[in-house]
Structures are given as C-alpha cells and as structure tokens.
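haha ok so turns out i had the wrong file open the whole time. this is the CORRECT one, sorry everyone. sequence first:
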Amino acid sequence: MASPVPRSPRALSNGVVAVLLLLPGLGLLGLVSVYPLVASFVTSLSNESLVYPGRTFAGWANYAAVLDGGFVDTVWTTLVFTAGATLAPFVVGLALALLLDMRIPGRNTLRGLMLLPWVIPGVVVSFLWSWIFNSNYGLLNEILGSLGLPADHSWTGDVSTAMLTVIIAKTWTTFPWVMVTLLAALKSVPVEMLEAAQIDGASRWQRIWRVKLPQVRGVMLVVAMLEVIYNFQHFDIIYVLTGGGPGKATSTLAIRIYDEAFRGFDLGRAAALGFCGLVLLAALFTVYRWLDRRVEGQNA
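then structure:
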C-alpha cells in the first residue's frame, strides 16, 4: 500500500498577511489613542473627583454645566490666542525665510542663530519673558524708562496687555520652525522658473509674489493649520507667564481644563471640556481639508 503524500503547508493569502502585519501597529494605536479617548469620554459622563473615591453616572450634566459656565468666553479667548499666535510667527517666519533665501552675507550663520529660540523649552521661555515683562525690574520697562516713557506698566497683570504678552512669547519660540519649513519649500522652487520670469522682465518682488509664493502655497497652508492645532491646545507658556489671568483674560481651553481637573478636582467637567475642545478641533480640521482641496484644485 502506497504511503500518503504529505501535504505542503497552505500559503497565506495577501490579505491575511497584510492584516497580520497591521495588527501590532493597530494594537499600539488602540492602546495609546483609542483607549484613552474612550476612557475620557466615559469620565465626561461621570461624577468623578480627585478628592473623593468612586464614580457615579452623571449623563450629560457635565456638558451642560461646562457649556453654561462661561464656555463661550473661554472659546473666544482661545480663538484670539490661536489667531495671534499663528499669524504673528507665520508672518515673521515667512519674512525671514524670504530674506535668508536671498544671497546675503552670513546667511548660514543667521540660520543657525535663529533656531535658538526653537530649542529652548517652553517653561524656560516663559520665565525669560516674565522677566522681560516684569513691572518692577523688567527689561521692557527699563528700555521705556530710558526713552522717557512710562516705565511702571504691569504687562502680564493688565487685562489689556496680558494676551499680547503670551502671544509675543509664543511667537518668539515658534517662528524658527515656520522659517525653516518655509525656507526648505522656497529652496524647492525650480530655478528655471525664476530665470524665465527674470528674462521676461519680472522684478525681484514680482518673482517672489507671482512665482515663489504660489509654488509653496500648499506648504504654507499646512504650516498654518499645524500652528492652529498646536496653539489651540497650547498650555505651558500661558500657564507659567500669566496662569490664565488676570481674571480670565488669558484663560484658554487648555488652562481651564487644568483648572477644572487640578484646582477644582472635578475630572468629569475637565473631560467634558476636553471633548468640547476636540469637537472644535475637528471643525478646524474640516475647514483645513476644504482649503487643502481648493488649493490642490487650483494647482491641478
């Protein structure tokens, strides 16, 4: 009797192999992203405190309390900070990128020096600018006094100037990465296009406005949107420089979430605030995708 022929192992299909390769990444994504998101949502529907143990179901009561507790003012303060802390470093970074794209003496040294604010931690930047803005011995008041101007202004303690101080500090630490990113994009513009425009009689400004900037418009949009996302949830500079004050002048969503969780000890309301901020960020991302598609359509 003939012995049975051994069967060769069955090969896995491409789909199964793809799923097996994706499983470790999906598991890690679920561990660090999906699980915390779900856990935070459950917390937002509960009465949970850092002081008292246990958790009870609260339904949408935390969201109702958050929305009725000055939420609109907090969102407005967040949007003001986000707009200022996005526009100012973008303008400064773009101007410096255009400058360093030209053949000026010492431009390589300048590129290195201008990266220094970027590598300094945010807390250190905050203490540096708090010293500059100090009403008693600050550098800014010293300069104003030497010019014969009023030199006793409390920059971080005045409602009219507190937001300006945090925007200036955030601009100083952010413009280098905007500059580097836009400079890299400007360097990618084909030289042939610039030479053709020059032959056609275009001035330097016209070559910048009509050739370079349209070519890097997509990168500019990405940089601006990333800055909006970063600034919308920014915390450290505002917290160290003003603590959200004076009053609520610089109390953004990130500051208020911290206050609810670690000063009010109410994790439920803090989580509800966080999810409200997530919804707003999703709306901003939707606007970004719409703008991105428009840019792609114009470039096609």
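The chain has a mean pLDDT of 86.
again sry for the mixup
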